[in-house]
Structures
1.
Amino acid sequence: MTQPTSSSGSTPLLSLIDIEKSYDALDGHAPPSVLQGVNLTLEAGQSLAIVGPSGCGKSTLLNIIGALTRPSGGTVTFDGVDLANKSDEQLATFRNTHLGFIFQSHHLLPQCSALENVLIPSLVHHDDDLKRSAPQRAKELLDLVGLGDRTAHKPGQLSGGECQRVAVVRALINQPKLLLADEPTGSLDEDSAAHLGDLLATLNQEQGVTLVTVTHSPALAARMELKLTLRRGRLEPWSEA
């Protein structure tokens, strides 16, 4: 079985069983199969890198984990709950409550300050206590990532690496159980990418943030506790070579 496992006996935070993903046939040809029997188990507090070349299905797999895309077959459970029977509205609530997302592009609103961008996900959260505490938490997190003196700056006044750090804090503002990162260093220069890799590793190790990142970067993958390669639609052991 090419998946991370734990002998703790507790319910895993995330479990994927025989995940398949195919798309509609084109011009009478058989539908392309992107994922072919993917199995994965992740415990709370672990960090995982999924590596592989562009176009191999890494983002598709991450979108399935993040309940943005439904699989063609197989089972996804989160904290023991099967996601298959949830409506689109229920999945949207699930994502906003339990998941945080970081993308290759930071997707910050240019007219909003760093602090305002961070607070956006909290505005639609159902937990009133979390909403009330969000501004203070946002300031603390921005300080943690070295942006405590940049809270009023808009994205156009920040470097690419700083914008991506704001995006990381935004992903954390609702205190998610799982942080998902899709090529988070792909648009950064080497130094900024290294600093972001350090930040993600620190959040995992010192803050206990559970993390899944898909990347083509061996340097970022090396910072994660667990590493797998997506090849021919399946997860296999990772080899840096």
2.
Amino acid sequence: MAAQPLLLELRNLAKAYPAGEEGKPLAVLRGITLGIAAGESIAIVGPSGSGKSTLLNLVGALDHPTSGEVLFHGRNLAGLDELALADFRSREIGFIFQSHLLLPQCTLWENVLLPTLACPGHKPVEPAEHRATRLLARVGLKDRANHRPGQLSGGERQRAAVVRALINSPKLLLADEPTGSLDRAGAQNLAQLLLELNQEEGVTLILITHALELAQRMGRILELVDGQLHPAQP
């Protein structure tokens, strides 16, 4: 079976923050080099404060590296200005966070369609309204479309956040502790849903988690230690 092409490449990626009280820059990431194939599912684990969210922000073009490169389908993101980066994020990347970040005054239907407003000229293969209906049904929320977030359970709100992240048919889904606010059953259900959508939608999944049980369900586990990524030890 032929190997999948690389969707994402990190080349000697480093991130340091300005000098603190001791006068030295704080180096968070140190020369990370990694290739991620289209359709992969990857868990990134590591101790608190190790730079996992920083790495996800660089991959998602929410922040700029101190040095090194992030390439998406071979295109160096450093060559894009802020307007082009915003358009890139809207079209190519879906984000899921520990907090669902749904707008409380909007219905579920309105919330999941909000990202389409950032891509007014985008002509998707599947119309946004059709996709929203299909995905809400897929995650068991079709009958909740007219409810507001305050009328939903925690698990339902996170499933709605997943639909919102997928509405523009991104190639890359970044999830930062998406099960952190859920109980064990809710976390297991959301994890299973993410893996199924990874296969059904063909979207590459990068997941940050402290939950070893969740990490072990991904296709690959990487550990961030001392600013560098390593294959996790079994």
